[in-house]
Write a structure and sequence with these properties.
42% of the residues lie in helices and 15% in strands. The protein is elongated. The strands form 2 sheets. The chain has a 12-stranded mixed β-sheet, sandwiched between helices. The protein has 509 residues and is an alpha/beta fold. Helix 4 links the parallel strand 3 and strand 4. The protein contains 19 helices and 19 strands. The two termini are 13 Å apart. It has 2 domains: 218 residues, 3-Layer(aba) Sandwich (Rossmann fold); 263 residues, 3-Layer(aba) Sandwich (UDP-N-acetylmuramoyl-L-alanine:D-glutamate ligase).
């Protein structure tokens, strides 16, 4: 079963905030650099001993910072535990801090000399990566890049890799790699969870994540700013209480799904089915006439209406809008060049409706062409759509996804779900990080499912913020359950839809 990461602390920090916590630990709570290094080494070695219990040949790759010193101390502990340890330093160990110099001296005195990195040196069973820490913010080049490439090549051959605090080359704030980064099998991180470990490229390089606070007191974190809060199962339980025994369909919301242009009926059907499976009392669909009959036959619980001319005064459309609790807009709506009268008409009708909206796909592209602030809506862009909404490049979005999500909230007066690895849910008051989900969900239609899930939760009375947070988390959990059962490669959005009810009826875990 996929872990829920509930064992990790809720707050997630960027690189500067972690550095501030480190400094505060030393200046205000009596810790010393040497003591923190020793604690980090012991915590990492405990994780190492659990994951690789049989001692063998270990290669420690150490850099000139405190991460390298931590790694050297891990090597000393491993030597005492029966490992055959060698330590290599691809970069000069000049200008070391006093604490780091002492750590390397201990290693050399107890274990052996620091060596140069050569291809032959990677003939080992386990590599401890302590080359770089959280300060990497530019491209890794030269001997350091060569060392990382050799580590990754060894990993591809089956050699275990444990990264200390963060995989070398990974940006602690953005989760982007700077040219090249270590792909670890496990990472042990300290003091606070780094945003970069769970966002963008981070999950692909971090491997299994373990955390140790190095015995930090609670007071260390009081008043310290953070970048996001992780969504955890306790948050889901808080916003999804058990239903009243007297509940009826009218209590559970009426979701109106608008989309499904000619040739694109599957997208709006997936949204509508996801809304049903997420507990909506009623779900109506307005789509192109080509799809309405087949959709009703395939899923008779849906109330489908085909509408070739979807102008705002189209017969029946306004009555459906008035009857709805929430409108899901965009899946299969089609680009402006595809039956524009249909897509533009549905978009205009929704934008003039007083109901809350969940906006996705081609509706976001139409919004980018004519930006407006609304207040009672949820936008669910992927990075490319977010770039169009902000008038920047996708690279700009990926450079700082949290900042991009916050900008979207402010510009459009919306709750925003910025999708991707480590999806972000940004509200006016908080930024949430979803650390669930898996690469099998990178397939067309998954976003349509998410739209339906969130819309159903809005219809059931959750606030826009809670619906976006809980919907994003439940969608990811259902994806992880699907991956556990059928595997990541080849899983379908419809597989995820079938597993939504189990995740939306939480039990104490």
């Amino acid at each position: 079963m996929h872990a829920t990461h509930d064992y990790l602390p809720p707050r997630v920090y960027d690189g500067e905030q972690i550095a501030a916590l480190d400094q505060r630990f030393i200046e205000h709570f009596g810790a010393t650099s040497q003591a923190l290094m020793q604690r980090a080494a012991r915590a990492a070695y405990a994780e190492l001993a659990e994951a690789w219990p049989m001692p063998g040949r270990m290669l420690v790759v150490a850099g000139p910072g405190h991460n390298g010193a931590d790694a050297a101390l891990i090597g000393e502990l491993a030597h005492a535990g029966g490992w055959q340890v060698r330590l290599v330093a691809p970069l000069p160990l000049d200008n070391l801090s006093e604490a780091a110099r002492e750590a390397f001296a201990v290693y050399e005195r107890v274990v052996g000399p620091v060596e140069a990195l050569e291809d032959a040196a990677l003939s080992c069973d386990l590599i401890v990566d302590g080359l770089f820490g959280i300060g990497v913010n530019r491209a890794v080049t030269g001997p350091a890049a060569q060392a990382i490439e050799q580590i990754n090549a060894a990993s591809a051959r089956g050699v275990g890799v444990l990264s200390v605090d963060i995989p070398s080359g990974l940006d602690a704030t953005t989760g982007r790699i700077h040219g090249v980064a270590v792909k670890a099998g496990r990472t042990v991180t300290f003091i606070g969870v780094k945003l970069g470990l769970m966002s963008a490229d981070g999950p692909a390089h971090t491997g299994e994540l373990a955390f140790h606070d190095l015995d930090a007191p609670d007071g260390l974190y009081e008043g310290q700013s953070y970048r996001a809060r992780r969504i955890a199962h306790r948050d889901l339980r808080h916003v999804l209480p058990a239903r009243a025994r007297s509940a009826h369909k009218g209590d559970n919301g009426h979701v109106l799904c608008l989309g499904g242009n000619q040739g694109l009926g599957g997208a709006i059907r997936m949204s509508a089915e996801a809304a049903l499976r997420s507990g909506a009392g009623l779900v109506s669909v307005v789509c192109h006439p080509d799809h309405a009959g087949a959709m009703s036959q395939a899923r008779p619980e849906l109330m489908c209406q085909g509408m070739r001319d979807a102008a705002g005064d189209a017969p029946g459309l306004q009555s459906l809008v008035q009857a709805a609790s929430v409108i899901a807009l965009g899946p299969g709506l089609g680009a402006a060049a595809r039956d524009a009268a249909f897509g533009d008409g549905l978009f205009a009708a929704a934008m003039h409706a007083p109901r809350p909206l969940v906006v996705d796909a081609d509706a976001l592209n139409r919004l980018a062409d004519a930006p407006q602030a609304r207040g009672n809506w949820i936008l669910t862009p992927h990075p490319g759509e977010a770039a169009r909404l902000l008038g920047v490049t996708t690279a700009d979005i990926l450079a700082d996804r949290v900042a991009a999500a916050r900008q979207l909230v402010e510009r459009y007066e919306a709750v925003v779900v910025l999708k991707g690895a480590g999806s972000l849910v940004a509200t006016p008051n908080e930024t949430w990080l979803c650390s669930q989900g898996n690469p099998g969900m990178a397939v067309g239609g998954m976003g349509d499912v998410l739209t339906g899930v969130i819309a159903a939760l809005v219809g059931q009375g959750l606030s826009l913020a809670d619906a976006a947070m809980a919907g994003t988390y439940v969608h990811a959990l259902a994806g992880d359950t699907t991956a556990d059962e059928v595997g990541e490669r080849g899983m379908l959005p419809s597989d995820v839809i079938a597993r939504l009810p189990a995740e939306l009826n939480p039990v104490v875990r």
